[in-house]
TrEMBL record:
Residues 237-305 form the Protein FecR C-terminal domain. Keywords: Membrane, Transmembrane, Transmembrane helix. It comes from the Bacteria. The chain crosses the membrane at residues 73-93. GO terms for molecular function: sigma factor antagonist activity. This is FecR domain-containing protein. InterPro entries: FecR (IPR006860), FecR_C (IPR032508), Ferrdict_sens_TM (IPR012373). The lineage of its organism: Bacteria, Pseudomonadati, Bacteroidota, Flavobacteriia, Flavobacteriales. Residues 100-192 form the FecR protein domain.
Amino acid sequence: MKVEEFKKLAEKYTQKKVNSQERLAMDIFFSKMQEANKNILVPISSEKGEKLFYNIQKNLSVNRGKRTAIKKYLAIAAGFSALLMLAFFTGMFSNNYTTVIAEKGEKKEIKMDDGSVIFLNGNSSITYKNNFTEKRTVKLQGEAFFEVARDESHPFTVKSKDLKTRVLGTSFNVKSYKDQLAMVSVNTGKVEVTPLQNPENKVILTKNQQATFKENHKPKISKGDSEDFNAWIRKMIILKDTSLENTAKIIENWYDVDIQFANDSLKQLKITGKFNDEKLSNVLKSLALIKNLKIDSTNKKQIIIRANPTN
């Protein structure tokens, strides 16, 4: 990409005209930039790309408290992220890596070379080496359900922001959105899950066990029908005493909308229910009825949840 095209992409970000793919690329870029002492998400074949990456990283660190500098480098980073986004369309990085993105409101099924199948939920991405059968490692942002082909010589590993999940051959769900507690749920077989910050809290999970991970806490182990935790692959939303805040996040990723609360106290309301491939309008009407809420739409993408004034 030429310098002028690069500048235009940076300007596009500063004018808030980026699409959801570019936003997700930004999330990936900054998440991995913060782990610069470890590994970046994807290899950058271009020498200029690598130099730009580390310059952005260095200057963001030096100028962390200065808004003007941050804005400047955010704009540059946006342009670089757009370069990553263009690579996403082809699914290739330096002929070594593949990244697949499911936007909000979208779900994808990926068939791997080893026979495994990955179901990717909305607002999520996976990255893996093209010679996948040699080292079966996937980097996940968001949520995915894995049906892993058994290969005792090559363990299957899922790396997410907080966890490393390792199996030989099984099926399980990993939920690891950046603004939610990480959770692993097992459908079949045995799964080893290691918190990256506290590896001593490693757990082994079996069928119908779930583990929820909170920073600096021991994982919370529960038991329940794991089919409920990956119901999204069957176009179902199942809520069991779920906070309205987490319900809103599910709806945002499912229908590609933005939900705001008029009062933060509403976020703690608990919801139980099941929606089978319902239209957004039906889901919102049900929530309003169940909890006596008033739900307004400023436009097709913006939703506001309020307490019903008749209460």
